[in-house]
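Quick one - first record:
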Amino acid sequence: MRYNAGSIITAMITPFNKDLSIDYQGLEKLVNHLIETGSDSILVAGTTGETPTLSHDEEYELFAFVKKIVNGRVKLIMGAGSNSTRTAIESSIKAKELGADALLSVVPYYNKPSQKGMYAHFSSIAQEVDLPVILYNIPGRTGVNMQPATVAKLAEDYSNIAALKQSNSDLDLISDLKKLCPSDFSIYCGDDSLTLPMMSLGANGVISVASHIAGNEMKKMISAFKNGNNEEALKIHLSLYPLFRKLFMAPNPVPVKAALNYMGIINDYVRKPLVELDAQEKDELFAVLSNYVKEKVQNK
């Protein structure tokens, strides 16, 4: 394994105050909550952290604060991607200066590069920054899909291109990736509800949103699978499935922020163009959360 981030990487939300400044008091509470509930690594300034509405200075301040609170207890990954190769390199260099353990770098969005363009983009980053790079393929947000052959060529040509976050529901692509990529290259599921299916095809774990709420249970599911207890892993997956689905009832991270507010951890403020859940949506989400808590108590 080129870089071991563990089995659960939480793509952390960014809590805001009512005036939409970063809520550092809530952030400290959230970071400790994540560490206490099963996160092996924390991803700072990913899409779930609302980076489209964060300035670069805010991202850097956010990471520096989280690093201080974490104090070496888990690994820290910084989202340093951009649809500008130059900007992605600058952000990646800054991430190393701030002490990131690894980078998450998304396929360029909006400008829709070719496979050759994707290769050129990520190879430029790998050449400029001596940190493990986790590629991020999410065609629903970028408009383009990075093909397994492109991922494999990058992994073969650059030893610091260490892993892939795959947010694509086509599971055949996982088989293609496992056949084409070096054996020490890691694949992380990017969709909570597909964690167990992807792991059955060789994925190493998940870069998760639901781990904000159900980290320990997800850890149990993954451990059960790795230990060969497939029935137990499936049972946990099915118990978590309604929560997985409901946390994406509206654009991420709106529902998970509402859930964390329900749990008393942070406020649910989001920056426009995102908007908070309405009362009916909250009732639907909180009903699922309530059932999840009841099942947890019953299964103890």
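second record:
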Amino acid sequence: MASPLSELLAEASDPTTPSTRLREISQLPNSSERTAVRQALAANPNLEGELLWELAIECPAAVADNPGLRLIQLREPAWWTQCGTGALLSLLSVMGEKAPDDARSHLFEQIATELTSDCTLQIRGDYTCSVSHDITIEWQPDRDTEPQKSEPCHATDSASDDFVLHFKCLGDYIGSIALMRKPETSVELCDVLEALLPSHQGALDWDTLSKCGWEEIDFGMDDAYWELDNCEPDLPDWQFDADLMTGYSGTVAVNDPTGCSHEILLPQGDPDFVKSNPVPEFDLSQVLFVQHLDSRLIVQRLRSAFLLEGA
């Protein structure tokens, strides 16, 4: 007695099986059975339309050898204009030198245009922002026993000390990158996409992104907090409490060793940003609208499609 799976495989391979039934059995809930059935479906010569191009992504070799595809290649318009990016790059990757040059040109133009047409990609990471402020603390030489708040002044009977306070801000950022120039060759296109692959640590490389034409176009801070990094000269017996705002201005409360409190107004500073560990909030399957493929496989197939494996 035939098993349920063997019956399904027979249906999947039978050219007389109705297209509605082929679509139905392509969506089996059991993953191992679904994989086997979809592999058989990819070779069915009666398979056309969306299901054929969908299976071309997962089973490009079987679809490339499918007699039904060879018939489609004889029709107008050109078959490579009828399938999506994922199906085309998968098929061209296994067809190699047998693929029409016009199909490769179409794939290149399709991807290059998508990448430079309002394609913004989200990233997140860590950042450190530092800013320095020169301050002058002034006070009257005669003090009461109780600490008192002393506003900065320029009275002739006051003493003063000058300090440089260095603040740092630690937090997370969310940003966007975009491709500023359209790739001109297939080698450049592959490099542009490969730059979007994170390292083994999961982060992108800023230098590689910039070299390939990716630029940050938006930047926002999240969950940030300010703290005093250091003071010049070093004042171990002093206490500082900063309250800085988004514009890097604000106040700093100072308690000197005598017990006197000072509140200093800080103007808007000129911050120095260091952004690190950019992590992509996307993968290439989303960028190129390619289902069922991981990012590294997309680049691998793309290089094969453009005959660049030895480049």
